[in-house]
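User: My advisor, Dr. K., asked me to get a structural model of this assembly before our group meeting. I'm new to this, so sorry if the format is off. These are the inputs:
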Amino acid sequence: MIPDILLEYQTEIWVSIGETFIMVGFAILAALLVGLPIGTFLFLCRKGQLLENQAVFSSLNLIVNIIRSFPFLLLVIFLIPFTRFVMGTAIGTAAATVPMTIIAIAHYSRLVEQSLLDVPRGVIEAAVSMGASVKDIIIKFLYVEARSALVLSMTTSTISFISYSTIMGVVGGGGIGDFAIRYGYQQFQTDLMIYIIIIMVIFVQFIQYAGITLARKIDKR
Amino acid sequence: MITLHNVSKRFGSFEAIESVSLSIKSGEIYGIIGASGAGKSTLLRLMNFIEKPDAGDVIIGDETLNHMRGKRIRQVRQSVAMIFQGYNLVGNKTVYDNVAVPLELAKVPKHDHEERVLESLRFVGLETLKDQYPGQLSGGQKQRVAIARAIVNQPTVLLCDEPTSSLDPNTTAEVLEVLQRINRAFGVTIVIVSHEMDVIKSVCERVTVMAGGRVYDTVEIEPTGVGKMEQSAEGFVERLKSGGEHHDT
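Assistant: The format is fine. Below is the predicted structure of the whole assembly, which you can bring to the meeting.
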């Protein structure tokens, strides 16, 4: 049932999957812990919103745009000095989490901002009229009303993070994508590369399915 | 109860409210009527400081709102409830949870929530729908949930921004009946903004007619009869003073 070549490399494959999990896991964590607040702040600083501040919005917006504009491979290389400064090394899976978390924060914060833009303005107005603080408005109104969109955004982001992680072989980050390149493409084992691609496709399908199912389940509007 | 003194509000170069003064008595049902763009909704939003005036004073009870900031103004808003044309319920919260929100914001002890939420829902006749979501309700039911949410924290003032404009005549009558009962049962001062003459005439004791951001006139009305909807301030005043007759627009 399982192709021989996968069995032959199963140890390496499991290690690679573990490396991908570490990189993507840190990216998700960074997206949630930093990207979500930044995206929310971006939304709140927009014109006509509760914390309207054109200077802060423009600056933050520019930074997010610049990071997202970078071709990811160049971002990884550009960040090598910073990664070395933060992690003590620019090589390996742990070091690879630095560019991954930075792109994750920029990526998810933009999607969070866009998700919150879909919350009806009247809901925010009602919250203000009830005497809600900004913190209350975010937690009891914005996130509740946008929760489905936030889950879908995280789903999209996670799939992008998996894609980004395949590049991390450049700095010795490893991961399943890097495995496919090194053992499949570079050693002329095309079948191995195809099997790995199939594994990744199945994995992405599962994430997409889980994300859509959860988003649908929690959307009561 | 509510006093506006020479209040003005600009949006860019557009003068939405121009030196408006009015006084609303405690326990009164007060109407504000006018054509689109007359400034009536802005005027209502000035009463709970959702919009801050560029000039003039807004006084609720014996408190001047002008110099209030942050927590203080939020506390005032908790006693000045508001309902909207679009209901503005949180779609992902059940009816019960929507109504409980003001209690959470006012930090009312959790063990008191159930009794007060159910009491509010009972008052508007929707206790049995407490586990439904707003998306499962009709327009009239949504507005009644919004009213339950507005009264759950026992406000002294209820501001109503076009509360029946999205509703059919029967549902409009139901919602107005609920507002009248709230006024009678709890002595809540109610301010209704509407462009519908029938709505104003059926429940309000006094009405201010707005035109071009100014008070055109303030009229005492008899709570009987219905009037033709005119799109001019003169028309509104004429209909209000004459006692009115029923016409469709």
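One thing worth pointing out at the meeting: Chain A has a mean pLDDT of 95.

User: Perfect, thanks a lot.
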